[in-house]
Structure formats: structure tokens, C-alpha cells
Amino acid sequence: MFLRRSLPLAAVVATGLGGQAEAFTLHVLHFNDFHSRIESINKYDSTCSGEDEAEGACFGGAARLYTAIHSLRDDLKAAGENVIVLNAGDNFQGSLFFTTYSGKAELEFMNAIGLDAMVLGNHEFDLGPGPLGDFIEGAEFPVIFGNVDASADKQLGPLDHDPLLLAVGDETIAILGALTTDTPQISSPGPTVSFADTAAYLGAAARNLEEQGVDKIIVLSHVGAVADHRLAETVAGIDAIVGGHSHTLYANDLDGAAYPYPDMVAGPDGAGVPIVQAGAYSKYLGHLVLEFDAEGNVISATGAPVLLDASVLPDPDMLKRIKSMGAPIKELKARVVAEVAGDIDGSRETCRAGECAMGDLVADAMLDRVKGQGVTIAIQNGGGLRASIGAGKVTMGDVLTVLPFQNTLSTFNLSGAGIIAALENGVSQVEEEAGRFPQVAGLRFTWDADIAPMEGRVTEVLVQEGGAWVPINPDKVYSVATNNFMRSGGDGYAVFRDEGRNAYDYGPGLEDVLADYLQKHPGYAPVADDRITRVN
């Protein structure tokens, strides 16, 4: 159905849409890393309660996002402006709507919102190629693959429509996709899908488009802010990058913003390339305004993210549909499992860069569950922690928002040398906010940010023996607990997969492990435990 919104390259060239004599202004509405936040969210990025909603303390959600996009798009078009809506990937995974409906809920709401393009995110592959293929076949908008080669997959292969060319006003806008190449390590694309180098793919695609007369090229990216900046600096022909993956907020006047909106990065020819991203979880809607001259050069880039707070009224019909779809999971989500005495920080920026309270809690819960089996160490990836929990009552819905991936508890044996190698992997991509950062229990470690990744960043590892902290013995075999994703090599933990022995990957779900632990520790209060020390 989306072909009405795009044109094949030959048609563009034949109709002469690739070049006009006048300046051209384009409004780009964009969001990224929706992560199944069908319902509105609270300040901890978890599902917002009815009480919080009544108090005006909620953000985002599909119904509020629907209102914001339709209202702004309609107003712009009524004023004669050119506007497109872009989604930078990772709609899957993150709430019970995804675990219950396997992508069908996200599809329904994205269709209702109305997109001009979506790029694949790594989490779109979490259920494998089959459910992703079903999602794309049902999409009323183009899903672009970019550097993803799915030609060996019978279902996905025919669904690839790169490059995407949108006829907007009297102009043609090319949309090129880019997806992080470590998707096989952090998701489940399977053997029929491969990933080309993003810079090489984009460079070749941009050159081809320019040779055909297309002079307005936007990269819709799911590689993260750091990688987006590298692409802008090195790949010729890119006019703007609309990004995702790193959940980065670009803004000019908001606390917590990592970059200005837009961030202008000098490209290979010296011209500024605007880069934007709109945080995550539908809390913000990005609004980028690009002005092109007659030769297709960006001569102005302005805009800002729009906060989707209580001032944006959720669409009532969408709310009714969300309530209907949420009925089967409402009882489970509402069940109170514990009460905690303080806020438990599980934020992305904390848990992917250092020790965080949620990491300590989850690792402790894992270790507590299997300590009777002789397990003495637990390691949990920071990227597996998806939300914080506020002080007070904790529902199963809160727990499932923190741990939405349906991972199971895994145990295995590994040498001290293997554990050191695992920690080295864990701190190897801190600068990119990678999810592999290790949250731990039963050990302490120190790492040096001035040392190159995988070159000895981990300078000290201590384990607890006889009530004392002692240096880890590289030759000794330890019993370790982790989650089944990491144990099978996910997030770069190949040492767990290749060197782990006597592995058992079919323990209880981590969400149950955490809920049970909180029930055993009423009034749990997080404390700074100094398990991880960073120097430099």
C-alpha cells in the first residue's frame, strides 16, 4: 500500500523531479526507539498509572504520539508546507504489548499514526525474520533495509525496497537506511540475513542517487549518535541524518541533552550535515526544518524536539483501542509484588556506563536464586535493564518493564581468565553506550578508560572468598550466573558461549527471579556498593 508514497528511481528521473529551480523547505517529524510504549510512560520510562495520568505526570504513548503527529502534520500541510514523518527503528520490545502480541500491536498503531518511512532497528529482529516479515507485509508504510541484506530470506528478501524515493511537493527526497552491524550479536536476525558496512553502503548509494539526478538525501539511521557523527564526517552526499539506537536527546534548551538540535557536523566537503535524534519511548517528537537551495544543498537547519507531556491530549479513539488490547494483561500488570524504600535507577545512561542500582539489584537477585548450587558470581548486561523503579509499591508490570526480554537464568562454569575476558568485552564500548556493560554481584572490578578497548582496560578483579575480597585466579574455575542471551554469546560475550562448561540455560524467567527477590526483601532500599570502579 505504501507504493503510492514512493516512486521508482526511473520514474523520478523521467518526470524530472530530481531538480527544481527554487529553494525548497522540508519539515521532518521524527521519533525513534518507541520500544512498544503503547501506553503512556512515567518519569522512569515505565507504564504510567491512572493516578499519574490524572495528575498530568505522564508522557508519550501511542495515543499522545498520534495526536501530536496528526495535529502538527495537518497544520503544516494546511499552511502549504512540505512534511514527512520518519521512524528511526526499534518499535519492538519493551512492554507487555509486545510480549503479548508479538509486534501486531506496534504495527496497528504505526499504521494509524501514518509514517512515510521506517528503518529497521536491531530489536525488530528479536523474534527472528518471520515475525518481522509479517510486520513489514502488514505495514501501510515503507520499511527500509539500508545495509541489511535479506536476499537469502524467502520472506524478507522481496520486501526490501531500497532506495526509497518520496515525491514531496515538486521535489524528490531520497531516504537511505542504516542499521547497526552488531545486530547479530545483540538480536536474532538468523543466518539468512547479513549486514554490510554502513559507510560503504551509504557512500555507494548516495553516489548512485546523485548520478541519477537526486540531490536531496536523508539517512534514516539506527546506528547510534557516535556512529552517526562518523558517518556525517566520512560519507559524501548526505544532506541530513535522522537517528536512533542510542536513545540520545538532541535539544538546545533541555537538561540532559547530549547534543544541540540539530548538531551540525562537517562533512567530507566541509559543509555542515545536520544530525538529530529524539530521545526514546515517545517522550519527544522531533521536528527538523531543512531548507535546500536550488542545487539541493542544505542552507538552513533548525527545529527542536517537542515534549509530549500532559499538554498533548491523547486521541480518545486510540485510548479505547489501547484499553481493549490491554485487557488481557491488565490483571498481571497490576499485581503488586513488593514495596521498595527508595528509587532504583535503571536508566540507560547510568547502567551502560557504570554501576547502577538496578544492576546491583538484578545481579543480586540472580545470584541469590542459585547460590545454593555453588554459584558465586552473577553478570547482567546493562542493556538488558530497560527502566527504573520508583519508591513505593512495585507491580509486576513495573518488573516486566525493567526486564521485558523474557530472558531466562543461565548457569555455567568458567575460568577466571574467561571472566576477565568477559569483563573486558563488557567495558569495550562504553563510549558508544553499548548494552554490554556488565552489572555484577559476587565480584568487584576496576577499569581504566584511558586504555584502549580490549587492551587491558580491566585492571583488577576481586572475588569474595571466605568473607574476604581476593584477586581472581585466572586458572581457577568459577560457577557463574547470567541470562540466556549473554550465555549464548549475545552482546559480544562469546567467551560465555565458547568456553563456558556445564551450561544450563533454562532457569526461571528473570522477571520472576527479580519479583521473588523483592518479595523476600520487603522495603528494599538501594545502596551504593562500589562494585565497579572507573579510573580516568
Molecular structure report:
With 536 residues, the chain is of the alpha/beta class. It has two domains: 26-35 and 49-318, Metallo-dependent phosphatases (Purple Acid Phosphatase, chain A, domain 2, 4-Layer Sandwich), CATH 3.60.21; 339-535, 5'-nucleotidase,  domain 2, CATH 3.90.780. 30% of the residues lie in helices and 25% in strands. α3 packs parallel to α5 (104-113) and α12 (357-370) crosses α17. Mean pLDDT is 93; it is low at 1-21.
Which helices and strands, and how do they pair?
Elements: H1 9-15, E1 24-31, H2 50-54, H3 62-78, E2 82-87, H4 96-101, H5 104-113, E3 117-119, H6 129-138, E4 143-144, E5 148-149, E6 164-168, E7 171-179, H7 183-186, E8 194-195, H8 198-211, E9 217-222, H9 225-234, E10 240-242, E11 263-266, E12 272-276, E13 284-292, E14 298-307, H10 316-334, E15 336-340, H11 348-351, H12 357-370, E16 377-381, E17 392-395, H13 396-402, E18 409-415, H14 416-426, E19 438-441, E20 443-448, E21 458-465, E22 468-471, E23 477-483, H15 484-487, H16 494-499, E24 501-504, H17 510-520, E25 532-535
Parallel strand pairs: 1-2, 2-3, 3-4, 7-9, 9-10, 10-12, 16-23, 20-25
Antiparallel strand pairs: 1-13, 5-8, 6-7, 11-12, 13-14, 15-17, 16-19, 18-23, 18-24, 20-21, 21-22
Helix pairs in contact: 3-5, 12-17
List the keywords:
25 strands, 2 domains, disordered N terminus, 6-stranded mixed β-sheet, Purple Acid Phosphatase, chain A, domain 2, globular, 536 residues, 17 helices, 30% helix
